[in-house]
Amino acid sequence: MMIFVACLVIFVYGMLSSLLGTIIPGLADELRLSNSAIGYIALAQGAGLAGSSVFAGALIDRRGTKLGVITGLGTTLTGLILLVESSNLLSITLAMFVLGCGGSIVIVAANAIASEVGDKRRAAALNFLNVFSGLGGVATPFIAGNLLGASPSKTGMAGFAATALVLLVALLTPMSGAKQHSGEGSRIKAGIFSSPSLYLLSTVTLLYTACEFGIWNWLPKYLTATGMARANALTILSLGFACGLLTGRIAAMPILLRFSPLTITVASSLAMVVTTYWVVHPMSRGLTAILVFITGLSMAPVFPTTVAIIGKLFRAQSATAIGFAITCGFSGLMLSSPVIGWLSGPGAQGIGHGLRLLPICSLTICIILIFSRNIFRHEEEKGVAIGALAESSTSAQSMSPVSSGT
Hints:
- The protein has one domain (2-172, 186-392): MFS general substrate transporter like domains (Growth Hormone, Chain: A, Up-down Bundle), CATH 1.20.1250.
- The protein has 16 helices and no strands.
- It has helices spanning 2-31, 35-63, 65-84, 89-114, 119-146, 152-171, 183-192, 196-225, 230-256, 261-278, 285-299, 302-313, 318-344, 351-354, 357-371, 373-405.
C-alpha cells in the first residue's frame, strides 16, 4: 500500500513538472510576459524546489514519511490556489515558489519510500515509481490542451482536485515512522556530507534537472515560436516528451535487473547529448514529435537511477542524502531557466539558441559518471563496513539489558 501511495504522490509531482510549461504560453499572451520574465518565474519555482529538499529529507528521517507526504501535498494545494487567483507577474511568481516547495517535499517523500526496497531491486523500483511522474507529466499538458482549452486557471483547478484526492488517500494510509532517534544518526549524517560521492552524484542531478526542466518549461514556447499551434505544442509535450519519460522508465526496469545502474546512467547520458542537440533544430511536426519522444526516452532512467545509486551508497539517513541531491538538482532549474531566458534574447525565435545549453549539460553528466566509478566503488565498500558495524552495535545494545540482569 505504501508503494501505491508513493506512486500517487509522485504523480502529483509529475503534474507540477509540466504545469509551468503548460500554462506559460497562455500566461505570456494574457500578461505579455517576456522571455526574461518567464525565466524569473521558473527561477522562483526552482528556489522553492531547492529550498525545501534538504528540510524534507531531514523531516522524513526524523518524523516519518507520512508527515512529509501530508506537508508536501498541503503546500501544493496552497500553491495551486494562489496560482488560480494570480493576476500579475508578482503573484504568479509567488505561487510558483510555493508550488516548488510542495513539489520538493513530495518527490523526496516518494523516493524515500521506494528506496527502502532491497539493493538489487532498488533501481528498478525507483524507475517504476517514476513512471507515475511521467503519467502526471502526460496528464497536465494533454488535458489542458485538449479538454480545458489551454486555460491556465482551469488547468490549476484540475490540478487542485487531483492533489486533494491524493491527500485524502495519504491521510488514510499507515506509513513508516522515523528511522533514527539516537546520537549515532547524527554521526552518520555528518559522514554523509563529508563524502565526495554525494557531491558528484548531486552534481549529476543538478545537470539532469536543468535538462529535463529546460524541456518542460521552454519546449512549448519554442514550438509555438516556430509557428505551431499552442494545442499541438502541448500535445507534443505530453504525448512526446512525457510519454518518452514514461516508456523509458518502464523499459529500464528489466534492464536494470541485468546491468548496473551506473552503466545504464552513462548510456542514457550519452543518448541525451545527441537528442537534446537535435530537438531544437526546425523540422516537420511529425519529426519533432518523434524526436521529442526519443529525448524523453533517453532521459528517463537518469534521475531515478542516480537516486538509486545514492540510496545504495548511503543506506543510513538515505532520505537526507536523497533530499540533498534533489536540492542540488533543483538548483539546476534555478540556474538553467534564467540562463536559457538570457541566451534566448528578447524574441521568441531565440529560444532555440538558449536550449543549446542542454547538450552541454548532458555531456558533463557523462564525463562525471565515467571518471567517478572508482570513487563510487570505494564509497560502497565503506558503506557496507559501516552498516555491518552499526548492525553489530545495535545487536549489542539489544542484548545489554539481558546481560545486566544476570
